[in-house]
Amino acid sequence: MKEYIICAANHYNDDIIHIHQPINITSGFVIGGRRHHNCIYTFKLMMKDINREDIVKLMNKCIQGFITNTNRFVNRQEAYKIAFEANQIIGPNKGYATNIIGLTSEDLY
Length: 109
Prior knowledge:
By secondary structure, the chain is an alpha+beta fold. It has one domain. It has helices spanning 36-47, 53-60, 76-85; strands at 5-12, 29-33, 63-68, 73-75. β3 (63-68) and β4 form a beta hairpin. The radius of gyration is 14 Å and the shape is globular.
């Protein structure tokens, strides 16, 4: 099966094992959304008191990436390679095999 990107996602590693996470996430949790700001907003809704020191630390070590159709969380750079191979890149980056910042949701839709 050819791997492709399905949505933006953020990985918040709280060092706790959570069920139903992408297959390559051993601790923490992943929040998916249409764009990364949607993931951040959901995180803030879940955490309620975002000014608590432990929550600020968790936000600061967040990794932005994407979820693939094979249920993997990948960072922006790996996601760009996958999307390029799957011919998902649109707009000004279409045709470029690499991108320094990695994949953005604007590259997809």
